[in-house]
Structure formats: C-alpha cells, structure tokens
Specification:
312 residues, single chain, Rhopdopsin 7-helix transmembrane proteins, three-stranded mixed β-sheet, mainly alpha, 3 strands
Length: 312
C-alpha cells in the first residue's frame, strides 16, 4: 500500500512517481532497455579488453579512454538493472538505503565523466600544441596519477553530498523521476538545507567550473593550431580530436537535459519525453562513446576488427 510520509522525520522508502501504467507495452519497454544495456556492456567491455591486453595501446590517451569506459559501465550498472525491475513491477518503490546507493552510483558516474573529459582534452592539447614535449609532460605514470585523481575527488564529493542528504529530516517520500535523485530528496526536506545548498554551489562554482574552463581552453588552443598549421597538422589534429569533441558534446547535451529537468518546471512536457531526456544522460554517452572511439581511432579499429572477424 502506498502512502506519503508527511510530517515524518524518518523515510524508509521512496516512491518513483514518474512511472506510469503501460499495460502490455511494459514487456516491449523491458526488451528495449535490456537490449540497450547489453549493447552498452558489450561495447564498453570490448574496448576495455582491447586496451588492456594490447601493449601497443598502453599510452596515456588510451589509458584515459579505458577509465572513461569503466566509468560508463559503472554508471549504467547503477541504473539499468534497477530500471528493468521497475518496468516490470506494479509498485514503484525503492528502499531508502538502496536509493542512496543508486544516487552514489549515478552521481559518481557524472562527476568522473566530467573529470575524464577534462583530462582527455588536456592530453590532446599537449599532444597537438606541444608535440615535442608530450612524452615528458604526459607519461604513463602521470596518466595513472591523473586517473586516480579523477576517481578519488568525485568519490569524495559524492560521499559528502550523500552524507549531508541522508542526515536531513524529510516530510515526503515521492520522487518525480524514474530513478533516485539527490536534488529531489533535498527538496523533500523539512529541516534546514543551507549546508547542502552551499556545498553544492561551492563545488559547482569551483571544481566544475574549473574543469569546464580547462576543457574550453584546451580545445580553443587546439582549434588555433588547426587553423594556423599546415594541412597535415590540421588533419592529424582533427582525426584525434573529433571523437573527443563528439563525446564532450554528447555528454553536455545529456547533462543539460538532466539539469533542466531538476531545476525547471517540466510539467508541461509529455511524460514519455521527460523520461527519455532523463535517461539520455545514462544511455547515449555509454552507448555511443565506444562506437565513436572504436570507429575513429585507427589502432583500436584495427585490433577490434582482428578480434571480431579474424586477422585483417
């Protein structure tokens, strides 16, 4: 039996109100989501294996890509199994501990993705704008250190974020989404949320903005080299940067849709469209990034062809 815990300070479960009765179509939606999840797992695992087992790919750029693919696997696994269960269920509830576990998974995915894309843009900046010094400025040891930091800081940030949210006294338990979201939980609070708001604002205005500036600066310098260099330099720069730019734009669109849904009134938008835009963030980057890099980066493409179709 569903009930909203009004004037309560302890919430044992949350109701995901964005789900609606789809009748027999729920089996169709289940099949579609399952196929997407299998494709995401297959594509990302394939490229992780390719990079790990081939010593010729043990270079900083490919190590950053491996980190990117691992993160996409973690983020997808934090959402899709839960989503598949909810699609077939008639009661769309989730226990509070599991809800916060899902928040940890999806928020870590989003944060690590931002760090990864920023570091990858810096790596391409060094390779294209300072090619003679690249091997000394970006060694595999430094790349491993950067990767460790891109996981440690988001992990620490999300742990603090969830700790602040878990300590709040809540007056409701209805989340108007198809998965658990920290912002919506904070809006349910009866107690003072000043600390949560200040922490989120400071983190966004310092760390996130700094990473965006680093990414923007790196690509501006790369574009400058593309327009001022020779045709050969321009072609080489574009061939290595195009996948990164497409990946960055894809993630940015997903992040924009997700932030818009959390911060603005979307009641006038059809429910199916809202769900699609909400899931875009966790579906399209993990699905298309392996395809983008696998098709555009020559070394990865050749090794993938040899694995899938035999010697080429």
């Amino acid at each position: 039996m569903r009930r909203t815990m009004v004037n309560s300070t302890h919430v044992s479960y949350f109701i995901l109100s964005a789900f609606f009765d789809t009748g027999v179509f729920k089996y169709l939606f289940f099949t579609i989501v399952m196929c997407l999840y299998v494709c995401i797992i297959g594509a990302n695992v394939l490229l992780i294996v390719v990079i790990c087992v081939n010593r010729s790919l043990h270079e900083p750029m490919y190590l950053f890509l491996c980190s990117l693919f691992v993160n996409e696997l973690c983020g997808s696994s934090g959402l899709f199994p839960f989503l598949l269960v909810q699609i077939l269920s008639d009661i769309h509830t989730v226990s509070a501990p599991f809800c916060f576990l899902q928040i940890f998974s999806v928020y870590t995915y989003a944060n690590v993705q931002i760090y990864n894309l920023a570091i990858m843009s810096y790596d391409r900046y060094l390779a294209i704008c300072h090619p003679l010094h690249y091997n000394t400025r970006m060694t595999c040891t430094k790349a491993a250190m950067f990767i460790a930091l891109t996981w440690f800081f988001p992990f620490l940030n999300v742990v603090i974020l969830i700790s602040l949210s878990a300590s709040l006294q809540l007056c409701g338990n209805i989340i108007n989404k198809v998965y658990c979201d920290n912002f919506h939980i904070v809006t349910l609070a009866c107690s003072d949320t000043t600390v949560n708001n200040v922490y989120g604002l400071v983190y966004t205005c310092t760390v996130i903005v700094a990473l965006i500036i680093l990414t923007f600066y790196s690509y501006m310098r790369i574009l400058r080299v593309c327009f001022s260099g020779s045709k050969q330099t321009r072609q080489k720069a574009l061939s290595t940067c195009t996948p990164h730019l497409v990946s960055l734009l894809n993630f940015s669109f997903g992040a924009f849709f997700e932030v818009s849904q959390s911060r603005f009134d979307m009641s006038g938008v059809p429910n199916m469209l809202r769900i699609f835009l909400s899931l875009y963030f966790f579906t399209f980057p993990p699905l298309f990034n392996p395809l983008i890099y696998g098709l555009n980066l020559t070394k990865i493409r050749i090794i993938c062809k040899s694995l899938l179709f035999g010697k080429v």
